[in-house]
Amino acid sequence: VACSASTGQVVRFGRDGTRLAAWQAVPVATGLDLVRAVDVAADGRVHLLTGGTPRMLVFEPDGRAAETLAVSPPGAPVAAFDLFVEYDPAVSADRTYWFATTRGLVTYDPRGRTWTVNPLGDDLAAIALEQEPVGHNASAFQVRSPAVAVTSAP
User: Within a 10 A sphere around the Cβ of 28, how many other Cβ atoms?
Assistant: First the structure.
């Protein structure tokens, strides 16, 4: 999946580079910095993080809008710069969303609709989660611990 930060357009590619789908995810009229991050979950859903007032937009693999989540943990407003979707249907049907924000590492659990803020310094710019195989199944992974890259966000 490729997306444009300035046009808000998303293009989905096959493993061989074939263009499978394209759609306008964020209207250009909303301003600059339309898309800050993208992640594709194991089920093929595309998750986009918008700039400005941060929202996570979720799309089905064919580009149909599925849901929207305002990135708004309790307390002071945040700017969000990156996201990671923790989801592996071989392990669990549950999802957890991770965000690198101006307030630190923020997680959202949609089951309980709960936000957790882990202050790790100012302006996290990117996150990556370390994963390890579950049992002897090399295609199933579980998140072991967050590995966070702390840098100055633009």
Answer: 13
100-137, pLDDT tens digit by residue? 888 888 889 988 889 988 877 666 777 776 654 444 33
**Interatomic CA distance for residues 123 and 135, integer angstroms:** 36
CA distances from 23 to 20, 40, 59, 100, 137 (A): 11, 15, 10, 26, 35
Q: What is the pLDDT of residues 34-66, one digit of tens each?
A: 788 899 998 999 999 988 788 999 999 989 999
| Strand, helix or coil for residue 30 | helix
Q: Which token pair is 84?
A: 């990671």
CA of residue 30 relative to chain centroid, distance? 20
Residue 147 has what pLDDT? 45
Count of C-beta atoms within a 10 Å radius of residue 26:
23
Q: pTM of this prediction? A: 0.78
* Distance separating the N- and C-terminal Cα atoms of the chain: 23
Give all strands (DSSP E) within 44-113, no chain letters.
46-50, 55-59, 65-70, 80-88, 92-101, 104-109
